[in-house]
Design brief:
heterodimer; A: about 110 residues; mainly beta; Immunoglobulin-like; 5-stranded mixed β-sheet; B: about 140 residues; alpha+beta; about 45% strand; elongated
Chain lengths: ~110, ~140
């Protein structure tokens, strides 16, 4: 597991039914592209988060495939439609098999 | 100024190089677009790609792409060592095909966004981004 991986997500605490809300996510990860070389000229192996998904009450919001061209500490901002209170589940999949998770609930009135 | 034979040969070579460079770069991007669309032609449409005109640091270039009604969006950087940047699939709870992220750019190049619409058609847009410091190491 890459060290110091910390997911952060920002979801509004409440919304009205049918609202479209903006969700911001950031996860600290070095996203080693596999193109860089170290001082000895050896290629540093690729180590990135290759997939990110967000689900709301079991329904998929976004499923993103990431490539090495995504910056260090990948940041994603997207929209979700909320009809009822529930929980957002965020999942990041690392190249090394690690899975990082976060969850945030929202109250919909 | 008199043009010698040597000058003429050098100029000819230079012109060939210039002509070949963009061709080679766009070929990789073109292939990736084809792989995404399955050979279908991507037309014009309601798709917006927002990126800075000049990016000082190629390591983090903020981009956002919006294509109302799209089910999937792919972003490509034609001048990177590998053109793929990201692929976004929008699910049933999505609030619209609109997403922002940060990407790496190796140098000044065209960034392309291709969207797959709900009816299976494809639309694309491109934007040129000038990069002062490349972001892919080297």
């Amino acid at each position: 597991m890459a060290s110091g991986v910390k997911p952060r997500v920002k979801v509004p605490k409440s919304a009205a039914a049918g609202d479209v809300i903006t969700i911001k996510t950031l996860i600290s990860h070095k996203m080693e592209s596999g193109n860089r070389k170290d001082k000895q000229g050896n290629v540093i192996p690729r180590s990135i988060i290759n997939r990110f998904t967000c689900d709301f009450n079991g329904a998929n919001v976004i499923d993103m495939t990431m490539y090495p061209a995504i910056s260090t500490n990948p940041y994603v901002e997207f929209k979700a439609k909320v009809d009822a209170s529930g929980e957002f589940k965020f999942t990041w999949y690392d190249d090394d098999g690690s899975v990082y998770e976060a969850a945030k609930s929202i109250t919909v009135s | 100024m008199k043009i010698t034979r040597r000058d003429a040969v050098a100029m000819g070579l230079g012109a060939t190089m210039v002509a070949m460079l963009p061709l080679r770069v766009s070929a990789a991007g073109e292939e990736a677009v084809m792989a995404f669309t399955g050979g279908a032609e991507a037309g014009e449409g309601d798709i917006t790609l927002t990126a800075p005109e000049i990016a000082e640091n190629g390591n983090t270039v903020p981009i956002s792409v919006a294509a109302p009604g799209a089910v999937e969006i792919m972003v490509l950087a034609t001048g990177n060592p590998s053109p793929e940047v990201a692929n976004f699939k929008f699910g049933t709870a999505s609030g619209g095909a609109e997403v922002s992220t940060r990407m790496r750019l190796a140098g000044t190049q065209d960034v392309i966004a291709v969207a797959k619409m709900a009816d299976g058609s494809f639309i694309k847009t491109a934007r040129n981004v000038k990069v002062t410091i490349g972001g892919c190491g080297g």
